Amino acid sequence: MNGVSGRMGYRQHLVRSILAIREQGGVLLADGETRVQVEPILVGRSEKKLADLAAKHGIEHYTTNLDEALADDRWQIYADFLVTKARAVAIRKAIAAGKAIYTEKPTAESFEEALDLARLADEAGIKNGVVHDKLYLPGLQKLKRLIDSGFFGRILSVRGEFGYWVFEGDWQPAQRPSWNYRAEDGGGIIVDMFPHWNYVLENLFGRVESVYAKAVTEIPARVDEHGETYPATADDAAYAIFELEGGVIAQLNSSWTTRVNRDELVEFQVDGTHGSAVVGLFGCKIQPRNATPKPVWNPDLADAHDYAGDWIESPGNREFENGFKTQWEEFIRHVVEDAPNEFDFLAGARGVLLAEQGLASSREGRRIEIPFVTLETGTASATSAGTADAAADAPASDAALHDAASELAAAR
Q1: Parallel, antiparallel, or unpaired for β 266-272 and 237-244?
Q2: Is the pLDDT of residue 217 over 60?
Q3: pLDDT of 165-182, one tens digit each?
């Protein structure tokens, strides 16, 4: 497990997934009786951090030498939770070592490189998987059940709002690492969120066929972990329209500069001819057509109707485990007994492509079609999603950055 000292690698992958699996006695296999146990080795740059984590959780193995860990036959799976810039190099080493690989997204900084990783893994015959955690959220699993039941009739549109206010880091510490706001370090909300939106849309509603996006850097300067003001060169908000196969239109806003006025940090509304649903991380409210009110527009009179009261909470009908843990168990079954796994490096490459083309759309101010991706797909023409000119607008001028830095300093 490479990168477990980071927030996501530690909380979701180590503690809530692998250690939780270990504590339950391993992963139950298809026969309903056999369990396969897991044993982690922690990999990172700081031996002290690794030693502290190992001691805290009763883990025997840790190392700062990735090459030695990859050369050891005891470790069958390489798991990557590094920052995006460091990921592809490490994954290439793991492919060369013949390891099964499970990784966070995005799988690379460019579609070309992400597709190359998919090809290399296929040629090496190794099993590979990419985190698709949003699909395992209770709210989206309830939504999937509604879709499969035919509740919506013909789905017309999807509207999504994701985001929250990330503090600038001056009078209150930022709740996200500063690299997220530097394009040269692989930051940006499109690079972060569009791979998520790609797999959510394609697995629930249909393949993304085109994107029209606007990416902006709304906070031009922030304060890092050391109290130093730095220019924000990556996009912190993105507004996009996606056309999906079958004619469904999806409008998704992603922002680290918005204050939350909804039930959850992410919320989707799906409208169909027979019904609608509003879902978040956990909740799922529905409104069938035979219970739909008949609003009438009248700007001269206050509307006292309780529209929120017209929605029905959809029951869970079963317990949902942590989504990261659930997908880990599925991937381990894939490695051990060849269970199905559709969330592979090629799926990850499609997500990188959407981010790359979303940034290109924003720069060029036009709608861009998304090609169908296979291992034989040619090199994409869009520029790398991790380049310094990733944000749609050019980086803020020196004068604007100076003004923003002065404003932050004055606030402190």
Answers
A1: unpaired
A2: yes
A3: 999 999 999 999 999 999
The answer to whether residues 221 and 401 touch, using CB atoms and an 8 Å cutoff, is yes
DSSP 174: -
DSSP 3-state of 160:
strand
Token readout for 39 is 């044993």
| 109 in Cβ contact with 386 (< 8 Å) | yes
Q: How confident is the model at residue 27 (pLDDT cuts 50, 70, 90)?
A: very high
The chain-wide mean pLDDT, for the chain, equals 92
For position 399, what pLDDT does the model report? 46
> How many Å apart are CA 127 and CA 77, to the nearest integer?
9
Would you say 319 and 177 are in contact if contact means Cβ atoms under 8 Å apart? no
| CB-based contact 2:68 (threshold 8 Å) | no
Q: Which two tokens stand for residue 54?
A: 């190992």
Phi, psi angle pair for 25, to nearest 5°: 95, 10
Element at 156 (helix H, strand E)? strand 155-163
Q: What contacts 92, CB < 8 A, 6 or more positions away?
A: 117, 120
DSSP string, 193-257: HHHHHHHHHHHHT--EEEEEEEEE-SS-EEE-TTS-EEE--S-SEEEEEEEETTS-EEEEEEESB
Question: For position 404, what pLDDT does the model report?
Answer: 47
Residue 36 CB burial class (10 angstroms; 0-12, 13-18, ≥19): middle
Is pLDDT at 380 greater than 80 in this prediction?
no
With beta carbons less than 8 A apart as the criterion, state whether 314 and 146 touch: yes
Q: How confident is the model at residue 317 (pLDDT cuts 50, 70, 90)?
A: confident
The pair of structure tokens assigned to 208 is 């993304």
> What secondary structure does DSSP assign to 5-30, as a single string?
TSHHIIIIIIIIIIIHHHHTTSEE-T
How far is it, in rounded angstroms, from Cα 256 to Cα 118? 31
Query: What's the pTM?
Result: 0.89
Q: How many CB atoms lie within 10 A of CB 394?
A: 10
Q: CA angle at residue 247 from 242 to 249, to 5 degrees?
A: 35
pLDDT band at 315 (very low <50, low <70, confident <90, very high): confident
Rounded Cα gap, residues 292 and 275, in angstroms: 8
Helix or strand (DSSP H, E) at 80: strand 77-80
pLDDT digits (tens, 9 = 90+) for 46-80: 999 999 999 999 999 999 999 999 999 999 999 99
Tokens 């998304």 found at? 370
